[in-house]
Amino acid sequence: MANQAQTVSNWTPDRLPSLEGRAYIITGGNSGIGLEAAIMLAHAGGSVTLACRNAEKAATAAARVASETGHEPGIVILDLASMASIKRAADDVRTRHEKIDGLINNAGIMQTPQMKTEDGFELQFGSNHLGHFLWTGLLLDRVEAASGRVVTVSSIAHKFGQIYLDDLMLENGYTPTKAYGQSKLANLMFALELQRRLSAKGSPAQSMACHPGYTDTALQSTGPTGLWSFVYKFTNALVAQPAEKGAIPTVLAAAGDEARPGGYYGPTGWMDAGGPVGDAQIAGRALKEDVAAELWRRSEALVGLRMFAER
Fold this sequence. Notes:
Layout: E1 2-3, E2 23-27, H1 32-43, E3 47-52, H2 55-69, E4 74-77, H3 83-96, E5 102-105, H4 123-145, E6 149-153, H5 176-201, E7 206-210, H6 219-222, H7 226-238, H8 243-246, H9 248-255, E8 264-267, E9 277-279, E10 281-282, H10 289-303
Parallel strand pairs: 2-3, 2-5, 3-4, 5-6, 6-7, 7-8
Antiparallel strand pairs: 1-10, 8-9
């Protein structure tokens, strides 16, 4: 297991600078760690936009952000399982924002039965990775205009994931856990490869990644079925930390002065499930640059978008 030099430890949101005048777009901001991160960023003065699939849930979340912080967030309707929706939502964001200080790729699904996105991609890989890949590509120039950050939420599950380059859609031997692990490893590899490409280009934008540890959110109740659904009812009650704590790594990566390009942040306690937030462990497989570069090329081909000239 590779480990970064420890430069951040026991980080808490009270260390945030003033975020007045800064814009943050959060996918999946209507619940869980996305909503809690939105509240923390808005408390510090940030202008927050919630990019959500369900308009009614987004409105409820926006009302909570406004009531708790005094800042009314924006809402963009976004379905990461639809490239058409992603393109419409990106166009919407571009009309509202010339600059984006933090593009937070937070939304995700977990351990779903085998299904496909609107465009025929395996649902977890398509939504968690490819959807955010396209979303980032369409808005990266706005992040660069702000010298801002792209933040991608991965998971401790990346340690158990593999990238199946010859079968990215897992048409042979699909399991919900296998698909989830691949998607979250892809998230982390994307974040690290994005930073390498930004650095090579001399871009002022930065890419960071984070994970929430084991956090009690709707993720465990809306995707898994069967035995996993049964298990999570107990582990969420006995082990999981609340969403407010799980959101701290996201806020650090998005707006903390201590965060650095290519950093990966999360809880540092037992098995990285909870505890003080700081530099998180990266599995060695996530650092394989040749695999990351090939995953990038295939992702570009799948979504039909070239983000950079080939390295």
